[in-house]
C-alpha cells in the first residue's frame, strides 16, 4: 500500500505522488513515515527531505508543517528544492554571503534579528549544497 505525498510551497504544488516512505526534518528531529502511520501534525525545520518511491530522492526544505494522516502526508513548507534542481553556484554564493554577514554581526556584537536571519540563510544554503551532492533522478 503506497503513501500519498504532497509538497506545497507558496508557489504551489511542488510534488504530488505515491511513495513508499518519506523522512522529514521535524523540529524535534528527523522522523520517518510509512503507510498507515498514526495521525499527527509536526513543525518542519530547514533540512534534508528523503523520499523513497522507486529510488531515493532528496530535497532541501525549509520551515513549515507536516500533516500525517494514515496513508497521506502533506508538507507545507516555505521552499522545496530537489537535488537536481539546485543551482550549486547560487547556493555557494548564498553561503558565503551569509557567513560574511554573520561575521560582521558578531564583530558588532549585534544579537538582533539580523543575526538570526543570516544564520537561517546560512543553514538553507548548507542544506541545499548537501542535497545537491546526492544522486538524483528527474521527477
Please describe what this structure looks like.
29% of the residues lie in helices and 47% in strands. With 139 residues, the protein is α+β, with helices and mostly antiparallel strands. The chain has 2 domains: 3-84, Sandwich (ATP Synthase, domain 1), CATH 2.60.15.10; 86-132. Strands 1, 2, 3, 4, 5, 6, 7 and 8 form an 8-stranded mixed sheet that branches. Strand 7 and strand 8 form a beta hairpin. The chain is globular and about 55 Å long.
Nutshell version of this structure?
By secondary structure, the protein is α+β, with helices and mostly antiparallel strands.
- How many structural units, i.e. domains? 2
**Which spans have pLDDT < 50 for at least 5 consecutive residues?**
none
User: How many beta-strand runs?
Assistant: 8
CATH architecture of the largest domain: Sandwich
The CA-CA distance between the termini, in Å, is 21 Å
Features:
139 residues, alpha+beta, ATP Synthase, domain 1, eight-stranded mixed beta sheet
Topology:
Layout: E1 3-9, E2 12-19, E3 21-26, E4 29-33, E5 37-44, E6 47-52, E7 56-70, E8 72-82, H1 88-107, H2 113-132
Parallel strand pairs: 1-8
Antiparallel strand pairs: 1-2, 3-4, 3-6, 5-7, 6-7, 7-8
Helix pairs in contact: 1-2
Amino acid at each position: 500500500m503506497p503513501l500519498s505525498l504532497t509538497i506545497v510551497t507558496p508557489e504551489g504544488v511542488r510534488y504530488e505522488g505515491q511513495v513508499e516512505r518519506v523522512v522529514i526534518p521535524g523540529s524535534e528531529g528527523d522522523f520517518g513515515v510509512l503507510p498507515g502511520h498514526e495521525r499527527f501534525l509536526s513543525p518542519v525545520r530547514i533540512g534534508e527531505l528523503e523520499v523513497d518511491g522507486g529510488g531515493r530522492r532528496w530535497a532541501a526544505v525549509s520551515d513549515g508543517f507536516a500533516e500525517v494522516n494514515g496513508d497521506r502526508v502533506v508538507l507545507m513548507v516555505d521552499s522545496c528544492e530537489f537535488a537536481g534542481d539546485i543551482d550549486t553556484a547560487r547556493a555557494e554564493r548564498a553561503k558565503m554571503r551569509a557567513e560574511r554577514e554573520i561575521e560582521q554581526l558578531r564583530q558588532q556584537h549585534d544579537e538582533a534579528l539580523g543575526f538570526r536571519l543570516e544564520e537561517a540563510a546560512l543553514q538553507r544554503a548548507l542544506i541545499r549544497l548537501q542535497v545537491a551532492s546526492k544522486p538524483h533522478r528527474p521527477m
